[in-house]
Specification:
Elements lengths: L10 E4 L5 E4 L6 H9 L9 H19 L2 E4 L5 E3 L17 E2 L5 H8 L3
Antiparallel strand pairs: 1-2, 3-4, 3-5
Length: about 120
């Protein structure tokens, strides 16, 4: 009989020293998730779940670069950019509490070690 394990609890994962994300990805795959986010190539010895976590990290990095995701200033969490629409007036773009990717690109490039 096949047993399905369901993870209902979100965990906070540190993608870099200054960027975190809330995810359901299991702890065993967090290193692969971080590798994908910082731009490392996949490890050919990884199993399918680690590769999927790496790919998700890569997708988040691309979404951050395209502006569909952003880093929330108050807690440095990676969130969907659409979440800012449901926030209060002080969280609107132009507010000092929101970080736009392009405003923080210099800081992020040093974090992600991009040339």
């Amino acid at each position: 009989m096949l047993r399905t394990v369901k993870h209902h609890n979100l965990m906070v994962v540190n993608l870099t020293e200054n960027v975190s994300v809330s995810t359901k990805i299991s702890k065993d795959n967090h290193a692969a998730l971080r590798s994908g986010f910082v731009g490392c190539p996949p490890n050919p010895r990884w199993n399918a779940t680690k590769f999927c976590a790496w790919r998700k990290g890569r997708q988040w990095r691309t979404a951050l670069a395209q502006g569909t995701m952003m880093i929330r200033a108050e807690d440095c969490m990676l969130v969907q950019a659409s979440e800012k629409e449901s926030c209060s007036d002080e969280d609107l773009p132009g507010s000092s509490r929101m970080i736009n990717f392009f405003q923080a690109s210099e800081q992020l490039s040093s974090i992600l070690q991009i040339a």
